[in-house]
Amino acid sequence: MKRFVLSLALLSAAVGVVALAPPPDLAKTGRGFREHERNGWIYVRLEGAPEAIGFQHGSLLRPEIEDAYAVIRLDLTHDGPHGWDYFRTAAERDFWPHVEEQYRKELQGLAEGLRSQGSHLDLWDVVAANAWLELSPYYEAWRDHTPQKAPPEHCSAFVATGSYTRDHHIVIGHNNWSSYLDGSRWRIIFDIRPSSGYRVLMDGMPGLIHSGDDFGINSAGLAITETTITRFTGFDGNGIPEFVRARKAMQYASSIDDFDRIMRDGNNGGYANNWLVADNKTGEIASLELGLKNVTLLRTKDGYFSGANFPVNPKLIREETTFDPDDKSASAAARHIRADQLVARYKGRIDLAFGRKYLSDHYDSFDRKVQPGERTLCGHIDLSARGSMPWQPPFGASGTVQAKVADSRLVSRMSFSAAMGHPCGIRFNAVNHIREHPSDSWQQDLLRDIPSRPWTTFSASR
Asked: What's the whole-number average pLDDT of the chain?
């Protein structure tokens, strides 16, 4: 696989960028590189001190970062009360004071790396983009003292171990639900070799120092993923940003206890998730449902946990969500039921093949038939009736945009298997969608086709 090593001469040839600054010193460039696109994914290795990791990130992915940031800005400002300056101010005034020094250095390095390649983006653009998933609707409601809109439902996932899996070791899987507008950009495989902490292999969006959809493994043998808590409300502006805690846990946790501690410490309630964690050293798995007021850690060495945006703790449901757990027509409830059905049917046979099946499943447990839509584990909100999910923000076409799966063998090798696009094989055509849904024409300049790509295994480079 051909690599683009981080020097300005090679980078300019690789991405068609004219260098506008003198070549950076070796301490900043290190041995960072990017590879050719493979089945929709771009593998990037970053290594060294925080400022070097950030600089490599910004330098190697400048075109992709600027493209992703255009999408993030559109997501946050379209049909909303605030322009981009509001979010830049939030980044500087309310998020930056709670970012610890090592990640400040990485974010500053990222902005410097972008600038070295002639980018107009600055530090507050970088910080705002990293806080994107917390800014709306969580932060906006807190800062503006307005009722919080329900966050969109993101993702389906599972983790299993013990007698539930074919070899009694861990298996974990996740598919990313998002708007197709931003989801088509969620295609980076980050291999991060930091000067402190554990090595990390994770998927992510260009410009984010955390995964964002949060699927990754580290060299301590932890495999980590999550799904959002549906219709959650609450935020603490004095807490530590979720993007900082998520990255720190991925980088420094060597056990479920470590992960739990890092994610709880300074919890701001932003981008509230049910985290699924597996420790490959012990075979233990856990579910950390991280609300703002209510936090529940469940763990087992013989069982499974599913993620379908369905809140688990009844007290959390009552106090921190507007979700009705008895409404089986809701997407989260229908997928939660279907997850239990599939796991029960395949108990003792859960493996990578099961993971790929689970993440591409089209059975609607409410209507009791196979029909891709909002209630299926492989999400196709665009194929559901318009307006059938009234709590969803107006992000237009959305659903599954990519998927990942790993077992104990892959985790031990710092590897996972990933598929860009719907893992079921259905492709999304942007032009056809805009033609059929002209109300989504505000997206047309940035909306892309999302073809279904084959499963591909990625490993941390030696």
From this structure: 92
